[in-house]
Amino acid sequence: MTAATQxxxxxxxxxxxxxxKFVHFLTRKGISLFGTRVLAVRGRTSxxxxxxxxxLLTHNGVRYLVAxxxxxxxxxxxxxAGGGELRLGRRVESFTxxxxxxxxxxxxxxxxxxxxxxxxxxxxxxxxxxxxxxxLAAVAPTVPVFRID
Length: 149
Prior knowledge:
Number of domains: 1
Helix content: 25-40%
Distance between the termini: 32 Å
CATH architecture: Roll
Strand content: 25-35%
Radius of gyration: 15 Å
CATH class: Mainly Beta
Largest sheet: 6 strands, antiparallel, barrel
Number of strands: 6
Shape: globular
């Protein structure tokens, strides 16, 4: 695969690393900021639990995991594992997922970006907070979305 065809993956850097650790700490203690959870997924090669804070999107009573940083390690792991755990404090919920096709993502991305655009806008080269359907459809292949079953 050449650099031009590799899936988008935005690494955390600088202040973001400390912010993510802080959010992870609060969520482990049972304090959710804007719907955060700790996502736990088994590693695809090691089989060990890997954790990361995520923003849990609920739309029309259905819950989704959105990966605004692109095809990250948790995305690769959840594709292999087929599910994982959502943790908030001592509460642990096991789940399975279904990855959505690109044509089903724009409406969900609009809701996700309206809620967390202030946090994730810097991961994109376009104004995702005010994006129209065409822009969201163009961004959709670079943003994995999973329905929690």
